[in-house]
Write a structure and sequence with these properties.
By secondary structure, this protein is of the alpha/beta class. The protein has 10 helices and 20 strands.
Length: 403
Amino acid sequence: MTGPSVAPRAMSRGGADPDRPDRLRVLLVEDDEADAFLVRELLAEAGAPVDLVVASSLAEARLRTAGVHCVLLDLGLPDAEGIDGLRRLLAMAGGAAVCVLTGRSDEHLGLAAVAEGAQDYLVKGEVDGVLLSRALRYAVERKRADENARRLREVELRQAESARLERGLLPQPLMDTDEVRVHTFYRTGRSRGVLGGDFFDVVQVGPDRLHLIIGDVCGHGVEEAALGVELRVAWRALVLAGVPEQDVLPALEQVLVSERRAREIFATVASVVLDLGANRATVRLAGHPPPLILADGAAAPVPARGGIVLGVRPRPAPANTVEFATSEWSLLLYTDGLIEGRVEDGTERLEIAGLLDLLNEPAARRVPLGALPGWLVGRVEQANGGPLNDDVAMLLLTRGGGR
């Protein structure tokens, strides 16, 4: 008999790695008692560290796959024949490796079985105990390597998907004025490490006119991130198309309602239109925390009435006009992940008041504006006692010195 084409890897005898057990639990699916007896005797003569369990049919095997490292499958069973039987076994085998047994005249089935997903094949009557033991161990190792490679591919695909979504959620500001500078920040929540539904954008529509938005789709995951991308792209299209300011958020809500996967999905949004010539801003809030103004060495929230979140009950967000008292200021837009960190030994949340306390610290005024968002998150995490659970996005726009 010809054995496996690749020699098995050496196994650790320490027993510390559960993926490389000292003893293999092998399920033999074989309806011929003589062949089953022969397999057991071959393993016993070789002193193979194998605990063998026998099933005489695929139906019986279904009840015995729990805790099995490898399945040794005869391709001729009373309730399963050939490759069809292998396919059915693979569907129930879980993480167990699979070796198939073929006759001398059916060796081509062994090659077909490997192509279908089996780890190896053996020809009856052409194997001794040592070779059989090595083949089983090799099959387990190959299955383990295949699973590691699959997990690695999944991680790479998720990373590529996150990168694509990040480009959609966090675009480059579309502006050419040198009157203001924009600094952005994004960090994923601690437990996921993938993008959520936070998004922001900046679009200039005239020499002195800029539109800003920051938003947060409720929930976490790829679908929420994709919906955030759709909302951000739709917002930019609406602004560039010259849709009246008061109609932009209602139109965005229509997009949300039509594209969301469930009626419970909503989004919070803060929208700002800056008139640099008049040194003022129009702010609209849809369930979102208000932007903060940093000027004259102090931070304060924009005095604004808020509307309800998008996706619950269509209603225009009220417009709030803000006159800047000085020609040098900064405007900080942020998502609620920044203010939901815990303080006071975890009994309270930071909230807007706590964020203002941090910004009004003397140390905050010594931080360069470009580094301020990162500094803020560091201070919030310090108060939280560790990384924040929710995603955090920030958009910091500065005119003049801004502090």
